[in-house]
Design goal:
There is one protein chain. This protein is an alpha/beta fold. It is built from six helices and 14 strands. Strands 11-10-9-12-14-13 form a six-stranded mixed β-sheet, sandwiched between helices. Strand 5 and strand 6 form a beta hairpin. The protein binds guanosine-5'-triphosphate, magnesium ion (MG) and zinc ion. Zinc ion (ZN) binds next to loops.
């Protein structure tokens, strides 16, 4: 049998008990070398489930049938829980400006959730062909005040996309996440035309997406760069330990890191502490306070009074 010894691989897709694993050599992913693998039971113990984006050692490699067996999970750098993807370098929260209409509270929840992974977070706004220039400028200004400089996309215009593709290619592993129907897979199909993954128009009745993408899947951009498409969803609750929350708002962490403001107490939560020097005059401050309140009820041992 034509076989090779154990190899390093990258999990690019997962379904039932099977994984697609792409060969990694000299830290580079080989696009044409994809193996269908099962994993040894032992690898899955201790909650060490294997996710898309994980690096694994696989053996029993059959080069004729492109089969293998996952023997070992390599320690991961990070794990996003919803959707479950490992070793992400950049999160692109993706929303359409219309059809479905942008929901600012959802955008905020996605951004907070993404920032919690402590990777670079960016915002993509799709379907800009559906709104006026005035509304586009309004959105740009609004999100800049939140601390984000959104990529504005329009399916019939390639400037925005070309700039974005260049950026993706400079990143190790980018992930597109956001609600259903906002155009995540459309972006992927434009970048990798041979992909031709299924997209679907938004339901005319409920003005929402139809959950067209069902699986998390990692796509190859270059030997050092890949991108993940995910099924759309909405976020209801974000549960985060209250100590972390100030680090998830650019309006707050930029004041501390870039403007070097200092509060009297190092662990100031910027609510009503004496000597708090944070400028609280920003749009999402009420949202920040409500997250803090909710977080304290979820973590009652952390209650101060
Ligand atoms: N007008 C307009 N429509 C767009 C644009 N981008 C995507 N669409 C349309 O939006 C619909 C939904 O796109 P998809 O790419 O399937 O959305 P998705 O985010 O992958 O949705 P899920 O897989 O369900 O999460 C499709 O009919 C696309 O043609 C755009 O820039 N302008
Ligand atoms: Mg999709
Ligand atoms: Zn403070």
């Amino acid at each position: 049998m034509n076989s090779i010894n154990s190899q390093l691989g990258l999990v690019t897709k997962k379904f039932n008990e099977f994984f697609y694993v792409d060969l990694v050599e000299n830290k580079k992913v080989l696009k044409q070398q994809r193996f269908l693998c099962k994993s040894r039971k032992a690898v899955q113990y201790n909650n060490n489930f294997i996710f898309v984006g994980d690096q694994v050692i696989f053996t029993k490699i059959n080069l004729e049938k492109n089969l293998g067996v996952i023997e070992q999970l390599i320690k991961r750098k990070n794990l996003l829980y919803r959707p479950s993807v490992a070793n992400i370098s950049d999160i692109y929260v993706t929303f359409s400006v219309d059809e479905p209409q942008i929901n600012f509270s959802q955008v905020s929840k996605f951004l907070i959730n993404a920032e919690n992974l402590q990777v670079k977070v960016s915002l993509i706004l799709t379907k800009c062909d559906l709104i006026s220039k005035n509304y586009r400028d309004f959105l740009l200004e609004k999100f800049q005040k939140w601390g984000y400089y959104p990529h504005l996309l329009n399916i019939s215009e390639s400037n925005g996309l070309n700039k974005l593709v260049k950026e993706f290619r400079s990143k190790k592993c980018s992930i597109l996440m956001g609600p259903s129907g906002v155009g995540k897979t459309t972006i992927l199909n434009q970048i990798i035309p041979e992909l031709d993954n299924t997209t679907a128009s938004v339901s005319t009745k409920i003005k929402r997406g139809k959950n067209t993408t069902r699986n998390v899947e990692l796509f190859y951009l270059s030997p050092n760069s890949y991108i993940v498409d995910t099924p759309g969803f909405n976020l209801h609750e974000v549960e985060i330990d209250y100590c972390s929350i100030p680090n998830l708002f650019p309006e707050i962490y930029n004041q501390i890191n870039e403007m070097h403001i200092k509060c009297k107490f190092r662990d100031c939560l910027h609510i009503s502490e004496p000597g708090c020097n944070l400028d609280k005059n920003f749009e999402r401050y009420q949202f920040y306070k409500s997250l803090m309140e909710k977080s304290k009820t979820h973590f009652p041992q952390n209650q101060e009074d």
